[in-house]
Amino acid sequence: MNLADFDTLSKVLRSEGFNLKKSLGQNFLIDPSVCPEMAASACDKNTGALEIGPGAGVLTRELCGAAKKVVAVELDERLRPVLKKTLSDKNNVEVIFGDAMKLDLGALIKEKFSDCERVAVCANLPYYITSPIIMHLLESRLPIDNITVMVQKEAAERLCAEVGSREAGAVTVAVSYYALAEILFGVGRESFMPPPKVDSAVIRLTLREEPAVKVKDEAAFFRFVKASFAQRRKTLVNTVSASMGISKELLREALSELSLPETARSENLSMGELAFISNYITK
Length: 283
Ligand code: SAM
Prior knowledge:
By secondary structure, the chain is α/β, with parallel strands linked by helices. The protein is built from twelve helices and nine strands. The protein has helices at residues 6-15, 34-42, 58-66, 80-86, 105-112, 130-139, 153-159, 170-178, 218-230, 236-244, 248-257, 271-281, and strands spanning 28-29, 47-52, 69-74, 93-97, 118-124, 146-152, 179-187, 192-193, 200-207. The radius of gyration is 21 Å and the shape is elongated. Bound molecules: S-adenosylmethionine. S-adenosylmethionine binds at residues 24-29, 52-55, 58-59, 73-76, 99-101, 124, 126, 129.
């Protein structure tokens, strides 16, 4: 069954009386080249693949071929009969109906993938929760090798930007702390049914064994990063002192230790410099 074919997908959905729901980010892939490449980039035959949002199962079917085992978490119960039909010829997949943001994914991985050498998350993510899902996966410190996902092109550029560049934001620093991020390839809006308003890209986040930098207090580091990127046009000293109630003098001292001017902005700083300042102002 070729679900990446528009007519085949439409027929399957119609036969089960299924209507796409925009609020759940249901733009289904209809480009035959995308899923095989995503699956091959994420998995090998020893990998347990966790998919978030299988939809009608187009990527799920590819993952069944590329991985040892697939567990797909889908929020929309209405897809139960569709997935039953589209995955009926696959014997290494299990679909769990639930909210990926609320399920205990750590327990799920432990239970389902104990016989796999590694675990990968592979998904065409619902765009309304791209960053929350990615941050949830990273912050939960799950035993994951890589997260290979399709996201909006702008989100891909932000998530995979270089820390210290204009494109970077607080989320870039957070991703970079946990993972090595790369854009694998772009996917045009015409590759989806219905076509969304923007183009997409597939990114791969390969999780680091250790965080990119050493910080005294992780929660304090992320509070500092969030504050320092909140008003990008202002200097770091002004933004952070106003939003965190930290004295300007202390922030200037930290910058001077790094031989940086007091007019420095967060978008010009490296991971190491951000970590140093956070450690300096954290008692
Ligand atoms: N994988 C399919 C494809 O590529 O054609 C569908 C991708 S579609 C962009 C996103 C899917 O995520 C939909 O099937 C939607 O119902 C599901 N979804 C939305 N929110 C979810 C959540 N919180 N947890 C799990 N699945 C979710």
